Amino acid sequence: MANFFNDNKDLKHHLHHPLMQKIVALKERNYTDCEKFDYAPLNFEDAMDSYEKVLEIAGEIAGEIVAQNAESVDHEGPHLVDGHVEYAEGTKQNLDALVKAGLMGISLPRRYNGLNFSLVPYIMAADMVSRADASFVNIWGLQDCAETIYEFANEDQRQRFLPRVCAGETMAMDLTEPDAGSDLQAVMLKATEAEDGTWRLNGVKRFITNGDGQIGLVLARSEAGSHDGRGLSMFIFDHKNEPGLTVRRIENKMGIKGSPTCELVFKNVKAELCGSRRMGLIKYVMALMNGARLGIAAQSVGVSEAAYREAYNYALDRRQFGKAIIEFPAVAEMLAMMKAKLDASRSLLYETTRFVDMYKTYEDIARERTLTPEERAEMKYYSKLADAFTPMSKGMGSEFCNQNAYDSIQVHGGSGFMKDYACERIYRDARITSIYEGTTQLQVVAAIRHVTTGTYLNKINEYATETYAPELKPLQDRLAAMTKLYADAVDRVTTLKNTEYTDFHARRMVEMAGHIIMGYLLLGDATRCADFMKSANIYVRFGEAEVNRHYKFITEFAPEDFTAYYKHEA
């Protein structure tokens, strides 16, 4: 029996991180829910036991059902029938299995029939499902939309919609349009308020993941005559019970073919306002996108895991010149580097998730009572770290995902180019991770202010003060030297006080910070579990080379020449 939780001890390692004790106690309000719900945990050990049991179920479904259906789903894909999406048969089986197992609404509160889990096991489930089939996680993982309803909708809306999500109804976030992709301020779908207080939506949305979902969050222009983000509001659309939405087409994509990406036509669709008017983009979509980016980071890690395992298993079995190709240094090095990138991106993913968990739980507690000054300070601390680490995790994790998918094909040689091997599908599925929910370049735009304001450097200095295994001291020294180069590079760039020049070097500086941070995270992993020693050694040396390369470019680049370097004739 394939079980993607039990066969991957790295997941259990991250599940049992020391910070989890505090996260779970906060999430469970010191375990007072057991007075109202008989399935609520009595203590930390009880909670972690529940987490493991649910993750074992998710791992079995991922390994035995989702992974087994992945190829047929990729070939069949969804169909357009009378203006609506019909999932592939395998997708229907996947969804049915997850719903029956009660894995919808994992992180939602129990009063809405959720499991009230921390984000860590939810992201872990997404990690496993992505390893099985990257396209399916785009259907199941859109529960992030339910988090937005929980955070910003009124109680009546929560009571009506959230139990439906927990019962298995699917969701969609309808944001982009033909002329509004990354620039969501250009959204023009029109929302008009009716006399009865309801709203009507008219217009077109494009590139909408799972666009035929039964409950939708829609970004629309509620303020007539406006042309920027201040005129946009968020709406909830009950697609299951309200008419007017038609799927005009399902996009024919390179990869993630099981996930329907739709062009939608709204014709006088009835909807209701979610939260306050004019805050749709400024507040709600930003929160929604951060959650979605964390989800894509998880998807990237899951795909990276699948790519590594396909390459490793093939290299063990494939024989050339009388021996398995894994015995050739060139192949062995590729596999070791793939594993190091996988381990580094997974460590960053779960560090980021813990930061998000902490600040979101404090925000939730603040809805019930006034936070103490210490709690408020801690919420602010983790909120800043979550804001800094989310784009880094999504950006660098998705790039590593693409690199591992590329190398998986390379290990397979000519066979990898054939559809007979799963690495071909994995390679196609990986490509979108560095594009949607904000390209890698946009993640750099989101991350660069945490370079210039010192968020990354401050956290790196915190990591440097932690206690690591004595045998890791040489790697710790390397990271300290890398940190000096990073700090000097940032100082050289920012002292010029030229925004364009800073933006020009932004990717290099963000990557330098990322390599150092992931290096320290792997030192922490290796200290808690010796199995990470190899990846820590490989990754720190790889990161060192990358930091030196970026430092050399920055210090040897003449500031007065950069305009000529990057500007192009029309």
Helix-strand layout with pairing:
Layout lengths: L8 H7 L4 H8 L16 H33 L2 E3 L2 E3 L2 H12 L18 H14 L1 H7 L3 H9 L2 H12 L4 E4 L15 E4 L5 E11 L5 E7 L10 E7 L6 E6 L10 E14 L5 H38 L1 E2 L2 E2 L4 H38 L6 H40 L9 H9 L9 H13 L2 H10 L8 H22 L4 H6 L1 H23 L4 H24 L5 H5 L4
Parallel strand pairs: 3-6
Antiparallel strand pairs: 1-2, 4-5, 5-9, 6-7, 7-9, 8-9, 10-11
Characteristic terms for this protein:
570 residues, two-stranded antiparallel sheet, 11 strands, globular
What this model shows, in words?
Strands 3, 4, 5, 6, 7, 8 and 9 form a 7-stranded mixed beta sheet that branches. 49% of the residues are buried. The protein contains 19 helices and 11 strands. By secondary structure, the protein is α+β, with helices and mostly antiparallel strands. It is globular, with a radius of gyration of 24 Å.
Q: State the helicity in percent bands.
A: 55-70%
C-alpha termini separation:
58 Å
Strand content: 5-15%
Q: What's the mean pLDDT score?
A: 95
